[in-house]
Amino acid sequence: MIKRLDVTDEAKKLIQELVEKHGELMFYQAGGCCEGTQPQCFEKGGFYPRMNDAMIGLAEGFEFWIDRDLFEYWKYAHFTLDVLDGFGPGGFSLETPLGKTFKVHYRLFTEEELNDLAPIVRSE
């Protein structure tokens, strides 16, 4: 199966740092408003996905959810979670006080990859 989500080494390091400070995590990528489409990192249970949002994979063992409408737009794309120095647009994410922001890089799946994609989970 082809994964829909990968994590860069820099993002893995930051996730580990956040786990040490906050415990279990979760990620949510909204479709607009305050956060734009920046992925947000919360303590597990600190944000509740809406009905029919999509969980596309795990970032270092933690659920990565996508807004249902945003997923429909990006369902043919692979996500790579990365981290940059600076502040994201929302400021609600756990990495913000560290002067970091999570970022997603996208690429379209190849036709071969589309035939073997890992399934998603939908919230109820």
TrEMBL record:
Top-level taxon in the UniProt lineage: Bacteria
Protein's recorded name: DUF779 domain-containing protein
Protein species of origin: Sphingobacterium haloxyli
High-level lineage: Bacteria, Pseudomonadati, Bacteroidota, Sphingobacteriia, Sphingobacteriales
